[in-house]
Each structure stands twice: as C-alpha cells, then as structure tokens.
C-alpha cells in the first residue's frame, strides 16, 4: 500500500472535530499518515499543538494566522506565535497569506499579518504554508521579497491560472492540490494545469472537511471530506499527469517529508 501525507486537514473548528480519533485511524488504515493539522489563528494553533501531543507521529500542525483572522493580529501576536512555532509538533508557519475574495479582514491588516509571519518563518528557519485567493499581484510582490530567505514556501489549495502557476513555480514555491481538481464544473482549468507542475514541487491535500471530490463513486454518504480520501485524489491527479499512481504517490510522499522536514520513520 502506498504512503501519503495529507498536508492540510482542518481537524479543529470544523465538522471533523467530534470524531478525531476515528478520522486519524481511518486515514492511517488507507496509508494516509501523518496528517498536518492547520492552525488558522493563534488560539486554534495552540489547541492544535495539544492535539498533536495526543497523537505523536500521527499528527503534526502549523501555527499561524489566516488572512480571515488578520484583524486579530496585534503588537504581541508575533511574540506569541514565535513561542507556538517552537513546539516540536509545529512543522510550518501558517496558514498565512491574503484573501481578497472574502475580505473578512481589511486588506491592509492582511498584508501586515502576512509580512510579519514571513519574517518569522525566516527568523525561525521554518517553512511557510500560505493561502492566496483573488490577491495574486499583492501576494506575489510580498512573497518575492521574502522568498530568497525562506527555507521552503508552499501555496496550498492552488486553483489559479496558468500565468499564476508559472509565476509561483518561478519563485520556487511548492503547490498543494486538492480534490477541487476532481470537480468537472469548477476544476477544469486546474485539471489542465496539473500536468505542468514540476513533480518535485507538487504536494497533495484534502482540505478536509471541505472540497469533497465530486467525482467519487460511489458517492460518500456524508458530504464531509476526510483524509482517508487522499489516495483517491492522488490517483485522479496521477491519471491527469499520465503517471503511474504508486510512483506518483511515492513522489508526493517524499516531497512532503522533505518540505516539512519529517523523517521517514515518522510515517
């Protein structure tokens, strides 16, 4: 059986939270382990660290402030995040970035929180896990400035255009691909782009419980996406790329180990 790492799972503050033990086990039964739990604000990041302590080597997490929560970013936030990011369970700074689609926080606040977190990733020599939606130009100009000093930079849940993809690859970003690619209505452009992502830059994720792959048959009874479905997404992407599914899974697994600085023995 192939091994997989789900690089973005919303285990906390979502519909998955009541069933964490079962979800972690069901994923591991499909070879999906460890899971990377997303911290989207500092309170959730602290909770994610505690959760990971209960599931050593099965769960790791990120610690950061998502652009939706950027208005909560205060003078002492960076210091608090620095402390959180030093926990051994934290494998990346984030989720951070820009989201001009929802604008839950003012754009100026989003930019400031993003810049501060990129600076922190540079200081701590940790990779950064990023989010961008409808904010490509500002996102690109900010990341360009910090990219030479970052040890690793991942744009997760990539759903952009060819020009955006090429700009991100030129900046040496990793791109995370979700089951969005399985959506025949919204995912067409992404499906066409996926074969052009360099194999060593590609990571795979479910973004559970969101983005249940629409093409799954039989359709899961629940509309909740789960980490155990990652092998399906991997197979789908491998087909789009014309690659052997097991080889593709192995490449993504190795990419994930290297990006998050995890040892093989942790699987």
UniProtKB/TrEMBL annotation:
It is an enzyme of class 3 (hydrolase). The keyword Metal-binding applies. One of its GO terms (molecular function) is hydrolase activity. Coiled coil: none annotated. It holds the Pfam family TatD_DNase. The keyword Metal-binding applies. Keywords: Hydrolase, Metal-binding, Nuclease. CDD domains: TatD_DNAse. This is TatD family hydrolase. It comes from Shewanella mangrovisoli.
